Structure formats: C-alpha cells, structure tokens
Amino acid sequence: MSQPLGRPRDSRVDEAIATAARQVLAEQGYARLTVDAVAARAGVGKAAIYRRHATKQQMIFAAVMHDLDLATPPDTGSLATDLAAITRDILAALATPPPGVVPALLADVHADPAMAAAFARTFVRAERDCVTEVLERAVARGELPRLPDPATVHALLLGPIFAWLFLLLEDPGKAPAFADTLARGVGHLLGRDGGA
Amino acid sequence: MSQPLGRPRDSRVDEAIATAARQVLAEQGYARLTVDAVAARAGVGKAAIYRRHATKQQMIFAAVMHDLDLATPPDTGSLATDLAAITRDILAALATPPPGVVPALLADVHADPAMAAAFARTFVRAERDCVTEVLERAVARGELPRLPDPATVHALLLGPIFAWLFLLLEDPGKAPAFADTLARGVGHLLGRDGGA
Description:
2 copies of one chain form a homodimer. Chain A has helices at 12-28, 35-42, 46-52, 56-66, 79-95, 101-111, 113-141, 150-167, 175-193. Chain A is mainly α. Chain A has 2 domains: 12-56, Homeodomain-like (Arc Repressor Mutant, subunit A); 68-193, Tetracycline Repressor, domain 2 (Orthogonal Bundle), CATH 1.10.357. At the A-B interface, α6, α7, α8 and α9 of A face α6, α7, α8 and α9 of B. Chains A, B: This is TetR/AcrR family transcriptional regulator. Chains A, B: Residues 11-71 form the HTH tetR-type domain. Chains A, B: Residues 34-53 bind DNA. Chains A, B: Keywords: DNA-binding, Transcription, Transcription regulation.
C-alpha cells in the first residue's frame, strides 16, 4: 500500500530513501534524478521505493516535504513579529530545495491529482494553520478586532516571496529583506482594517 | 537561426504554429502535446517549427506568450484604479492558458537557461514596465512623493494572484475579487509611505 505523500512512516528505510533523494537531487538536479540512483544511494531495492511512492515525482515530493519545518513559530507577543517569523519560515521552505526543484514539483502537483491532494494536505494546510494561529493570537491579544480571512492573508504572505524567487528571478540574497518588508506591509494592512 | 522566444516573426506560419499550439494545448494538455500534432494542425512540417523553436517547450512558451496582452493599461486618473487594472491584467494572463500550463512552463523556465532569459525579457519585463509606468504616473500626479521600488511592487501584485491560483489552489471564481482586494491593499501601502 502506498504511503500518504509527504508523511512517510517513521522508519529507517523511509529516512534513508528521503535522505538519498535529497542528496541525489542536490547533485544531479530534478530532471536527471532517477529512482535507480536513489535506491542505490539509500542501499534499498527499487521495490522498496515503489511500495512507498507510486511515482518518482511523489518520492521527490515526500523527500522535500519531509525536510521542511512547517511548525507554527513561537508566540513572539506581537502580530508584527509573528508575521515576520512566518515570512522567514516561508522563505526558508522555498529556498531550501536545490535550484529548480520547487517549480518542477509545482508542475508535478498540477499534473497529478494525487500530488495535488497531498500538496493541499501537507504544505498548504501546515502553512495555513500557522497563518491562522498567528491571526488568532492577535485577536486574543486585542491587536485585531476580528479574524481576517486566512486564505487571503496566506496568499499575501506566500505569493510575493514565491514571486521574488521563482517568477521575477530577483536576487535571492535580497529575499530576507524583502520578506521583512512584506511582513511589515501585511501587518500594517491587517492593523488598518482587521482584514486584508 | 532560431527566433527570439516569445517574439515570433510577424508571418502567417508563425501565427499558424502559435494558434495550433494553443489549440492542441487546450485539447491534449501540456504533457501530451507533441510537435507532430502541432505541425499537423498548423499544416506545416516539423522542420518549420524547429527552425523557429529549439524545443517543444520553447514553442509552447512562445505560443502562450504570443497570446497575452501585456500592454500598460490606459491611465485611469488614479493610482488605485490603475493598480486594479494591473491586477486584472495579471489575473487574465495567468488564468488564460489551459489548466497546468503555467506551472509547467515555469518549471521549463527553471530548467532551460534560454527560456529563463526569454521569460525575463518578455513576460517579466512587460509586466515590470506596466508597474513602473503606473507608479510614475502616480508620482507625476502628486499621489506618491517618490517612485517606490518597482521590483517590490511587482512582487506584491503578481505573487498573491499566482499563489491564489497555483499554490493555494483556491477557487478561481473568487480570484477577481481577491485581485481587487489586493490592488486596494497595495495602493494603501504605497499611499502610506510612498514605497512598499
């Protein structure tokens, strides 16, 4: 039975495959990675990989997702600094995989309904939970009069960082400063009307 | 000699190939489109396609780009409504290609330096010119004290719409309302400090 994507069983084989996939990805790039190379690196048979992942793309997705820390950042005591922590986490998640991997995985997500479901269930939901929790904290503190639409705030936080790195091909070295600017801007908008 | 990507010569063959590519794309989807099918539909030989486009991916890119209207929107007399016009144009550009095509092309752009250069030279530059012109109009009107960083504003306008459609997989039917919300938010931020 195949695994839920991005949530491998906690076992040494799962870990070995994910680690090997990330190493091969970093060395060979997305297009040239083969399941054979990952199996050899992990010291497992191809069957062990295909028992866990229906396709090469799903294997890569799981390995990349597995490596991300998508926990909600600790409560910093203010919406502004909580938002800055989220944009830094989003930037780290997008900038961690080797070059080209994020756009390639996104194309795969749009080509494979199983991957789309897994993407929604893992990356999108984890980030949405972070955004929602940070907004709820601000409401509880009295910083916001009511909960803004989490989907809107999520798009405002994630989209510009994705655009900076992958659409506009801007300098990644300037991305951290851009992420901070973005967090301040979104914080300002939320503070203005309690909703973006 | 191959053509500059996305800027086909003004000729009937160029038009026929681009039109055929868009039709096959809409019918077959990105992954199943073949150069043979496009050549047959266009009534040209494969050689005619490969004289213009080095790869299938470059042919698709040119066909999709060719179909987009990336002109700067007319001066509406205010920054707020100019920004709303830009976000509507961005949404139209991203939502026009058949499902999956934009993410697939983005992956191709990151896998092929020639496509990355063409993408920067066409889509990114055209949108950046729109953004810059709209900001310059606002400065000329006295709505903004100085020109904000166009790259930052571009990322703020493009990114959330891309995220809504392709990362968060939100309802495309709600994208126009989201684009308007976004334009208002960015306009507010720019008005606040003359720079995002």
